[in-house]
Structures are given as structure tokens and as C-alpha cells.
Amino acid sequence: MRDGSRCVSLKKTTGVAVAHNEEISLESLINQADQMLYVGKRDGRDRIVMCRTEEEQAPANNQGAQATTQAKL
Questions:
Q1: Beta bridge partners of 57
Q2: What is the rounded distance in angstroms from the CA atom of residue 10 to the CA atom of residue 28?
Q3: End-to-end CA distance of the chain
Q4: pTM above 0.85, yes or no
Q5: Which helix (H) or strand (E) holds 72?
Q6: How far is residue 14 from each of residues 34, 63, 70, measured CA to CA in Å?
Q7: Residue/partner pairs of 56-64 with CB below 8 Å, 24 or more apart
Q8: Which one, of 70, 65, 71, 69, lies nearest residue 32 by Cα?
Q9: Rounded to 5 degrees, what are φ and ψ at 27?
């Protein structure tokens, strides 16, 4: 990205959590997104990491709510 005559480098790591029902509290949702942010930073930065609930996972994958989907930016 350019800022006048300077070239500015931007990097982004994002943690994402999605509520599919109203049973999860806002505080819990924010905590999940925060945890995923640190997973992304630990795993190499410049990525989006999404917290997946047990319902979203395939039946053969029984790793619980902390399984992640990562996309490198």
C-alpha cells in the first residue's frame, strides 16, 4: 500500500468466532475469538483463524469446539 511516496506494509491476523444460537454469551464469544487470534499468531501470523463448534465439524472429527479453520492471507 502506498502512502504518498512511501510504501507501507500491512499485516493482519484475525480470530473469528460465530454464534449460531443464542445460548452462548457475548463474553464467551469474545474469548473464543481472542483465543483464535493467538492461535493464528502462534501458527505463523498473517492469517484468519475461525473457532468451529462441534456441530460444524464432520462426525468423524471429534476434537471439540477449539478445532480451527485457517486461511493464510
A1: none
A2: 29
A3: 15
A4: no
A5: strand 68-72
A6: 9, 22, 10
A7: 56/20
A8: 65
A9: -60, -45
Grid coordinates standing for 51?
Answer: 473457532
Contacts of 25 (CB under 8 A, 6+ apart): none
68-72, strands of its sheet edge to edge: 14-16, 47-51, 68-72
Q: For the segment 57-72, what is each residue's pLDDT rounded down to a tens digit? A: 444 443 434 445 566 6
Per-residue cell: 7: 510504501
Q: Which residues contact 56 (CB under 8 A, 6 or more apart)?
A: 20
2: which strand partners? 7
Residues in the chain with pLDDT < 70? 1, 53-73
Measured CA to CA, the distance from residue 12 to residue 19 in angstroms comes to 23
Hey, where are the domains in the chain?
12-72
Whether the CB-CB separation of 22 and 46 falls below 8 Å is answered with no
